[in-house]
Amino acid sequence: MSETAQAPQPLVLNIQYTKDLSFEVPNAPAIYTVLRSPPNVNINLDVQVRRIQEGETVFEVTLAARAEATILPATKANGSVEEKPTVVFIADLSYAGIFTLTGIPEAQMEPILLVECPRLLFPFARNILADVTRDGGFPPVMLGPIDFVGLWQSRRAAQAAPAANA
Hints:
Blueprint: E1 11-24, H1 30-34, E2 40-51, E3 58-71, E4 86-101, H2 106-135, H3 148-165
Antiparallel strand pairs: 1-4, 2-3, 3-4
Helix pairs in contact: 2-3
């Protein structure tokens, strides 16, 4: 019986964790009395990558999500409208994972770190954001599918644009 050594996996998720979580309801408790329908939720998403140790292929990949919910300005009794929307809640989440890349050429690391790694983290971050908003007394924020390839391509285009204009 011969033993065959298994080749190491090219991408390993060593650990994943909530790096930072903040949930704020700046207008509580009054907001609960005026909220009649689900608020308008604006989502900002970013992916950050940091090499853990120089010369190693171990990286921390962080999926940063910010959900800010607002309601439209109310019309006052005199018929005037308030200038800006009222903030209902703000949820900030940084969800991270430590990834080891083995045998991957340097030129192929960027798309793996900015596309594949966040794709693995996303379902967990999505659940945390939904739970925290629901536990805050609001309809859960359910993030739709994210096109991480598109995000990566737009980031590359934005980085290339200043170089092309120089």
